[in-house]
Amino acid sequence: MYAIGARFDRQPELLFHLRAVDEKELIAKAGRAIPMAKPGKASARILGGEDLAELFGLDMAATEVPDAKSKPKKKRSR
After folding, report:
1. 40 to 34, 43, 61: CA distances (angstroms)
2. 17, 20, 44, 71: most buried by Cβ count inside 10 Å?
3. Which is nearest to 21 in space by CA: 9, 10, 12, 31?
4. DSSP designation for 46
């Protein structure tokens, strides 16, 4: 048994040959049998952003989110 294990360590493709399986065909079909994951329902446990200050008892300053399109221009150094 140890000799067989050592041979498989050196040549793992022998397992496919012993089982009469075409490894390339097996690899090509590998993803087909697995069903795609279904999106789950949104959890009621996810916190919204509206009442976090009240929830944690914090005084949070309102911040303005910068627009992604308006980037500040870099100053050139001379």
Report:
1. 17, 9, 34
2. 17
3. 12
4. S
d(CA 23, CA 14): 10
Distance CA 38, CA 55 (A): 32
Q: Which amino acid is at 24?
A: K
Query: How far is Cα 25 from Cα 13, in angstroms, rounded to an integer?
Result: 13
Say how many C-beta atoms besides its own lie within 10 A of residue 23's C-beta: 13
Residue 49 in contact with residue 39, Cβ under 8 Å?
no
Using CA atoms, how far residue 35 sits from 1, 23, 41, in Å, is 37, 21, 18
pLDDT tens for each residue of 24-46: 888 888 777 666 667 677 667 77
